[in-house]
Design goal:
Blueprint (H helix, E strand, L loop, with lengths): L1 H19 L22 E2 L8 E6 L18 E2 L7 E5 L25 E5 L8 E4 L3 E3 L5 E9 L11 E6 L4 H4 L3 E6 L3 E11 L5 E9 L12 E10 L9 E7 L5 E6 L6 E6 L2 E6 L3 E4 L8 E8 L8 E5 L17 E4 L6 E6 L5 E5 L5 E6 L4 E5 L6 E9 L2 E9 L1
Antiparallel strand pairs: 1-11, 2-13, 3-6, 4-5, 5-13, 6-12, 7-12, 8-11, 8-13, 9-10, 9-12, 14-15, 15-18, 16-17, 16-19, 19-20, 21-22, 22-25, 23-24, 23-26, 26-27
Length: 409
């Protein structure tokens, strides 16, 4: 009996679609002005607020799917009820009844996350298939980020432009949608799930709603995923800030370990410690001892406070080499090379007793500022662009490493 009813419905739908080119259903048509993406300054590919709290989220995982009638999450409304509109679908989109005598699925799309998402699974003769979210509270003059995942594969072989827009407003009606603030507008097909987001600062405190509106021209008879929406989130900046640490200090011990300490951040539960670019540890204390250091190199440490919702801005501190290069060379009196002139303004000439294969210049922080290969007993180096100060020349040969200080004027 149900199949006979579905066949009757199919025949009726085909007749309606054929008539639509002459007389579209005005009750579903919304005269909503669109705006190209290039003219919407708020649209970004990815926005990140410094302080983030989830004000509203919808992943469509808790909605019980009803293929025959099509449903949306509790509190959502749409342009009309039924299966030919926005509805929640799952990761096995087999929604075309066999009695329709058409391919069951035109486009198979898996959810971005989880097992369900919201899709516009049918485009009929009327423009303006819209869905409106449940309400959520926003505060005036506070910056919010609205983000979601979007896919727009369209109808295979059908070249009409796909079109979708997302708006935000305070009244959940189609009429109010026409003047609601545009968050996102796209007229290009998107074949893979894509993250889109926009910043919005409400002028008034109150309840707000998201509008998802389709303006794609009618497609041929077919059942498939024309648009998909997943992982909707509204972030706000009304949470306690994650403050950076203060009073960061560092000092070497006698055996050249670096001892770091700092004052705690009020909202932090732990701290990430980096030596140069390397993550050394995440600690809950306000101190850290770094071992295994090269005594001839200087280092920079960065400490980042970690809060429940975000990380703070890093604070850095640097130390020169634990031992100055000449202090670590036992045979410093046996100078294996000379530097002339010293002090120098423009160039220095290095002359060695024997051939050496590499020369390095190290600044007072232990940072290598120049490194050259060499295959003779002499080399000339341009130091005119060096900052004034004390440097160390380190030559490396088959017989060892030798270091000597020079002054750049």
């Amino acid at each position: 009996m149900k199949k006979e009813i579905l066949k009757t419905i199919c025949i009726t739908l085909v007749a309606v679609i054929c008539m639509c080119s002459l007389n579209a259903q005005q009750t579903r048509k919304l005269d909503i002005p669109t705006k190209p993406v290039s003219q919407i300054e708020e649209v970004t590919t990815k926005v990140m607020l410094s302080n983030r709290a989830v004000i509203y989220s919808e992943g469509f995982e808790n909605t019980i799917i009803d293929i025959d009638d099509g449903v949306l999450p509790t509190g959502w409304i749409r342009s009309y009820e039924g299966e030919y509109n926005w509805m929640v679908v799952n990761d096995q989109p087999n929604y075309g009844p066999e009695s329709y005598n058409i391919p069951n699925v035109i486009n198979k799309v898996s959810p971005f996350e989880g097992s369900q998402f919201m899709a516009l699974s049918w485009i009929d003769c009327g423009l303006g298939n819209w869905a409106i979210s449940e309400g959520f509270e926003l505060t005036s003059s506070v910056a919010y980020e609205v983000s979601f995942q979007l896919v727009m594969p369209g109808y295979p072989g059908y070249d009409e432009t796909s079109s979708i827009e997302c708006r935000i407003g305070t009244t959940p009606t189609a009429e109010a949608m026409a003047t609601a603030h545009i968050l996102y507008n796209n007229t290009e097909r998107i074949v893979e799930w894509t993250f889109v987001s926009s910043l919005f600062t409400p002028s008034e405190t109150g309840t707000y709603y998201l509008f998802f509106n389709d303006n794609t021209p009618p497609a041929p008879l077919g059942w498939g995923i024309y648009h998909g929406i997943d992982d909707i989130k509204v972030f706000g900046s009304d949470i306690a800030p994650c403050n950076s640490i203060t009073n960061l200090s560092a000092a070497y011990t006698e055996d050249c370990k670096a001892e770091l300490s700092w004052t705690a951040s009020a909202n932090a539960h732990s701290y990430k410690v980096f030596r140069n670019a390397e993550h050394k540890a995440t600690v809950t204390d306000t101190f850290f001892t770094d071992e295994g250091l090269d005594t001839l190199s200087g280092y920079t440490w960065r400490v980042i406070a970690v809060c429940p919702d975000m990380d703070a801005i890093e604070v850095a501190i640097s130390l020169p080499a634990c031992k100055q290069p000449h202090e670590s060379v036992k045979d410093v009196t046996k100078i294996a090379f000379t530097i002339v002139p010293n002090p120098a303004k423009d160039k220095i000439e290095i002359k060695s007793e024997k051939e050496f294969n590499k020369v390095e210049i190290v600044n007072f922080l232990g940072q290598i500022v120049l490194s050259n290969t060499n295959d003779t007993e002499t080399t000339t180096i341009d130091v005119s662009n060096f900052n004034s100060g004390v440097y160390f020349v380190r030559i490396i040969s088959n017989t060892g490493t030798f270091i000597q200080k020079f002054v750049k004027q």
